[in-house]
Predict the structure.
Amino acid sequence: MKSLVIVEHNNKSIKTSTFSTITAASQICDSVDALIVGNQLKEAVDEIKKANGLKKIYVIDKDGLNNPIAENLSTHILAFLKTKDEYTHVLTPSSTFGKNLSPKIATKLDIQQISDIIKVCDSDTFERPIYAGNAIAKVKSNEKIKILTVRPTCFEPCGLTSNVEVENVNLEGVDLSSVSFVAYDESKSDRPELTSAKVIISGGRGMQNGDNFKLLEGIADKLGAAMGASRAAVDAGFVPNDWQVGQTGKIVAPDLYVAVGISGAIQHIAGIKDSKFIASINKDEEAPIFKFSDYGLVADLFEILPELEKKL
Amino acid sequence: MKALVCVKRVIDYNVKIRVKTDKSGVETENVKMSMNPFDEIAVEEAVKLKEKGVIDEIIVLSIGAETSQETIRTGLAMGGDRGVLVKTNGQEIDPLNVGKIIKYIFDKESPDMVILGKQAIDDDCNQTGQILSSLLDCHQATFASKVEVNDDKTINVTREVDGGLETIKISIPCVITTDLRLNEPRYASLPNIMKAKQKKIDILDINDLNIDIKRRVETIEVSEPPERKPGVIVNDVDSLIDKLKNEANVI
């Protein structure tokens, strides 16, 4: 058995999701290679070279591959796979990068991908969350190559103390797609992203209006936290849609999730239940959120939040 | 232009799901079903484009048991023009095969764009759009939060990617998958619900399509996720901070 990890990067640096994916690959078999596709990859290659657990790194560094256009990446990865028929597993992080790309590789090989694995049971059996993590499916692939995307938060990143052999790959005759890249607007926020934050503080309908979310900002600053909201708060127009945490919003798994004025609707719980610790503040002691919380504080958030900010 | 919108009937997002006691799956008998929320966004986007005069016809497609007709009707009440149901026995179908079925309908209808949700909230696979565009060898724009059709019929799509927004320009025919921020789906008005009852739904039997729908990924068992251990109620801010610092070690 031999696994190939598709590297997620921005041409300069490697995304941590890649290191978690290498860990997942190492749990399947001992022989793990990595493939990095992009343009002007020197710094990125210097970084991925350090990853423990890799046997070899293949590099496709080519003009026109500077943006992660799925059409371009997939054709190059498929051309590479055509030259190597030894891979039994191809793993990609289950980030927007991997979700966009990996099914294209699988489809061209007429293989059914398994999305978002959270556990490796054996070389063809995996666990993955369904219904936003409200159930766990154990699935077995009968395909000749297992094509997997890996939920990064479920695998510790590999260590970075190696110096792995690197080979440049020249692929002839792989055309570029006519999809054109227009722009990338990086989120300007000084706060971490919801899906990768270690700490998240979210407000619900109990915040009463959008202005009151300022009460959460100071606490978020002190904790280095991302800010989120329940669907009720988004539907009420308190905060923008992309703050929404829950089954139909962002599924999060931070070390600490602080729910403020959130009652704990099923669809919200579905999005936060993989958090290591959940702390909640709500004045209604019957609120369902308390049943899912490690620490609950029954109190009026307007009194508690300023005190919390001061004492942190 | 003509749009094909794909909709899936799933357990309503507000229902607390129950795992079957024999661990074979999730209980769907006597459970409220609705259109997959991301597919609702897809229908809404197609209707918006029709209102702008960009799209002339919207076909609403679903693959599933007879009951999926209701889901198609919901799409027709929101503004779809006609429906297509590929009727199954209600068995689960792997996304790759779903892609092949949609391609069959695509080849028959020749739409300019296919719009569908980025994922269904039941199996959470997030694959179908990507699979379809690969089978069709056409452009894809996943996780769309903004769709702008240009005069030359190219389409600028802004995509929700980790860490920001990416905009790409694609050509028709294309596949677009919707993300949450794209729009807010409308509620169908009563007159439109009545009108939708008159709209046509073509029904095709999946067995007539010559597509092998044998499962290639088997579900061995479905189980409850590990329970969270019961928590504690703390009395004040000081004890909350103390617990988070010294017990959980998370701040």
User: Anything to note?
Assistant: Residues 70-83 of chain A form the longest helix (14 residues). Chain A touches chain B through 90 residues (CB under 8 Å).
